[in-house]
Amino acid sequence: MTESMTRARHRSARRPATPLTDFASAASDSMGAVGRGAAIVAASGGLVATMISPAGAAPGAGSAGALPAVDTSALTASARAVLQTSPVVSSPVDAAWSFEAPAVTVAPKPVAQTRVARTAASRSAERTAAATVNNPIPQSVSGNAVLEIAARYVGTPYLAGGTTPGGFDCSGFVGYVYAQLGISLPRTSSAMKGAGTVVSRADALPGDLIWSPGHISIYAGGNDQIDSPSPGKTVQFRTIYQSSPVFIRIG
Questions:
Q1: Which segments of the chain does DSSP mark as H helices, in order?
Q2: How far is the CA of 236 from the CAs of 113, 140, 248, in angstroms?
Q3: How high is the pLDDT of residue 137?
Q4: Is the Cβ–Cβ distance between 234 and 157 less than 8 Å?
Q5: What share of the chain has pLDDT > 70, as a percent?
Q6: Which of 59, 132, 170, 250 is the residue whose CA sits 20 to 30 A from 210?
Q7: In this structure, are residues 166 and 180 in contact, taking their beta carbons and an 8 Å threshold?
Q8: Average pLDDT rounded to a whole number, residues 92-110
Q9: What count of other Cβ atoms lies within 10 Å of the Cβ of residue 165?
């Protein structure tokens, strides 16, 4: 018995056929003479055919170097339809590109913030001005030698231990005013109390002294006095604020 040595043959795998298969086949047959100088590129939405002259072929060298024309009549209907409907895009060789840089602008400071800053500065200036405004000078000053001299130093700042117009403490101010009249008083407020005569408030006259524990001032008539009260304040005419003032007459 003879054993058959013939083996089954399998069909080789092939690429699936598309509407462009016939077109590519016809183009390949027509351009076989071009060789490596021709290429067919199929792209989605269109077909682009590029033909390149073989290397070394000079333009106009004759029919031997010319590329053969593609016979589109041999194409299938579907391929011709693709060529007719595909858009053609072209761009000049000397096309120039330009870019516009965005403009940069600087916005001014918001008006609202500016107004707030000005308002704050204005209020600060008003507070400063109010702190330096002198209280009204009582009518009792006119014709009273002690008060007329004392009024010259309104606005002088308080200075602990001060005895000159550069700065006064309470007793330093009283002693300096009386010294302008040729009257010498002790340095401390408690010693000044003992240097004069105690009088009632009803009998007190403008120019007398007002004593309270740790403080002394000059009586300005009515319910007013002038003194250098405490750190951060200045010599001013002000209301008598002591709870139990003692009135002292000098001389």
A1: 21-30, 77-85, 111-132, 145-151, 170-179, 189-193
A2: 39, 15, 20
A3: 84
A4: yes
A5: 51
A6: 132
A7: no
A8: 68
A9: 12
**Greater pLDDT, 219 or 32:** 219
What is the token pair recorded at 51?
């033909």
Distinct helix (H) and strand (E) counts, the chain:
6, 10
What is the C-alpha separation between 20 and 82, in angstroms, rounded? 9
d(CA 189, CA 178): 14
Distance CA 178, CA 156 (A): 17
Q: Identify the bridge partners of residue 218 per DSSP, sorted by sequence position.
A: 209, 226
Tokens of 198: 């105690």
Token pair 């870019």 is found at 99
**Neighbouring C-beta atoms of residue 73, cutoff 10 Å:** 7
What Å distances lie between residue 118 and 107, 129, 132, CA to CA? 19, 16, 21
